[in-house]
Amino acid sequence: MQGTTPSPSQSDPIAPHDPEKAAFREAVRASAPAMPGIFAWGVVAGMAMMQSGLTLWQALGMTFIVFAGSAQLAALPLMAANAPAALVFLTGLVVNLRFVIFAASLGPHFAHLPWRQRLFYGYLNNDLMMGFFPQRFPAYTVAHTSGKVGYFAGVCYPNWLTWQAGSVAGILLASQVPASWGIGFAGTLALLAVMIPLVVNAAALGGVIVAGAVGVAAYGLPYKLGMLLALVSGMATASAIDLIRERKAQA
Q1: Residues 94-141: pLDDT tens digits?
Q2: With the C-alpha atoms ordered 141, 149, 123, 202, is the resulting torsion angle positive or negative?
Q3: 56 vs 30, 42, 44, 60, CA distance in Å?
Q4: Do residues 235 and 127 lie in contact, with contact meaning Cβ atoms separated by under 8 Å?
């Protein structure tokens, strides 16, 4: 019928603008500088798994199923030291507690999606996502869905592929790279390259400073418990600073 305005649902198949594709490309460009660090971190994690005594298939299973580098690196020294299983489990749980905070922050933006898709997104979620998404889509945009799925995919898919490629390379190369090459230190530098761009506010900076100081001070604790203590201290500090900032903003 002439003069009828097409509804938004009647999308033009040849329309040049697709908000999800545009958001995907934007997210890929934003997160691309961190990918070399993610790959190096994956290599270190892969090598650490093999050097901790895991078999090839155990290491591959851990990297594809767990997909949580910091928790893996925290748990591996405990596994190598034959620490109690409960302590290994508790360490991984505490290290990954931040994903509960991530989910609480990002979940409302994806509440319109089917639960299976949200569950899959929970598996793919990562630190980069939490660093970029709230800046691109602040909390007041929660009722608007356009571009969010594309942006999530643009950060998380390359991150997953890069991490797994690095982990598999580390697993396969573990017996070929001598310890004298200092790959572990390269992993530390890679983590710094990933972490520094994510320190975007006072809460993040406070958490990093406190976690670093506690980690150094508690280095001598058995079973690498200093790492666990540093993580808890850093998260508590960042949360406290966030709470103080919110109360000041509401006052």
Answers
A1: 778 778 878 888 889 999 999 999 999 999 988 888 878 888 898 888
A2: negative
A3: 34, 15, 15, 6
A4: no
Helix (H, G, I), strand (E, B) or coil at 117: helix
pTM of the model: 0.72
Structure confidence by residue, pLDDT tens digits, 179-218: 666 666 666 666 676 677 677 788 888 888 998 899 889 8
Residue with tokens 């748990």: 75
Cβ(153)–Cβ(219) below 8 Å? no
> What are the angstrom distances between the C-alpha of 31 and each of 20, 36, 99?
16, 10, 19
Instruction: Look up residue 67 and give its amino acid.
Output: F
- Which among 174, 171, 166, 179 has a CA at the least distance from the CA of 56? 171
Residue 247: CA count within 13 A, CB half-sphere:
6
Q: Which residues have a Cβ under 8 Å from the Cβ of 172 and sit 6 or more positions away?
A: 46
